[in-house]
Amino acid sequence: MKKVIVNEKERGLMFVHGKFTRLLSPGKYTLWRKDTEIEIVSLDSALISKKCPVDVLLKNKEIAGQTDVVEVKEGEYVFRFANGVFQKEYCPGKYAFWNIGIQNDFVIADITKKEIAEDFPKHILRKIPPALYQTIVVQEYEKCVLYYNGKFEKVLEPGTYYFWNNHWTLIGYHKLDMRLLNMSVNGQDVLTLDKVSIRVNLTLNYQITDCVSICNNVENYREQLHIIAQMALRDFVGKYKLDEILTSKNEMSEFVLKRCREKEKELFVEIKEAGVKDIILPGEIREIMNTVLIAEKKAQASVITRREEVASTRSLLNTAKLMDENKTLYRLKELEYIEKICENVGNISLNGSGDILSLLTGMMQKTAERSG
């Protein structure tokens, strides 16, 4: 004898000699025969028996009346909702779900269409296995080139896209930045015409014009553009001596810009601007250039000093001529110097007759003669 209890959220499947005989509702059952078995199944999940297929169980009228049946074909997924709440996704097959106190709703998705339909409830995607689908997010400044099995399909504009993962379609994509882009071509060691090795740093501004063509026809367009700029630099620097290059940065930038623009159609980009940022000299050459610069500045300073001395002397000569010709002006100049001397002297003692100005003038002349 064996006792079995079937709870409210369960049903019992009775088997005699391995054959399904009846459905058991909630309650307590006593099994007297050894060849009788009861399999307990839950009402919350699909009707699945380990002892017989679902088609056999559905032949029972009682079971058929208490279940909802859905068949999932090849190339489909079915998503089950119980009382409006998502439960689980199911792959191809036949399924029966208990409807006792449960409202079953099913959403069938055709995964052969690859892209998930617009009306599909996207909020359940985070609840299903990530292996079933993939997401592509295209930013506002991007465009995305989409491929099915390696073949171009279409261009995705900014937005979020969802695709089914199936066994016969490989989804690939390539996102491209459509903004104004910058590329730095740094550390290019090149030889000048007079065999001096210099390092040139260059910057390029460009924009992609055809996202599909650049993906399908150009392998690594940034590397291609980088090489073109490198070759243009080498061609320009190799034609000129160091002194000429140092004074022709603008010409070098224009040359590189022109050379890069010749390849715009092949690379499917538009070159907006090219400019040389730095020209870096080797250590020895830099020291020599600094020495030359210091010598030039010293020579310039010497010329300026001599020019100022000549101007000062000429000014003194002109002043002297004016004072010779005008006694009053000479007298005023004497008073000016006496005033400056008196500002720095505490006490002055004068002996003799005459006006103070004449006495001061005479005293200064005697002092100057003794000093001389």
Structure description:
- The chain is α+β, with helices and mostly antiparallel strands.
- It has 3 domains: 2-113, no CATH class; 130-177; 181-281, Tetrahydropterin Synthase, Chain A (2-Layer Sandwich), CATH 3.30.479.30.
- It is 35% helix and 35% strand.
- It is built from 10 helices and 18 strands.
- It has helices spanning 54-58, 61-65, 211-217, 221-237, 242-246, 249-261, 264-267, 283-325, 327-343, 356-371, and strands at residues 2-6, 10-16, 19-24, 27-31, 36-42, 67-72, 76-82, 85-90, 93-98, 104-110, 133-138, 142-148, 151-156, 159-164, 171-177, 181-191, 197-208, 269-280.
- The strands form 7 sheets. The chain has a 3-stranded antiparallel sheet with strand order 3-2-5, with no helix packed on it. A 3-stranded antiparallel sheet has the order 8-7-10, with no helix packed on it. A 3-stranded antiparallel sheet has the order 13-12-15, with helices on one face.
- The longest helix is centred in the last third of the chain and has 43 residues, at 283-325.
- The protein is elongated and about 155 Å long.
- The model has no long low-confidence stretch (mean pLDDT 84).
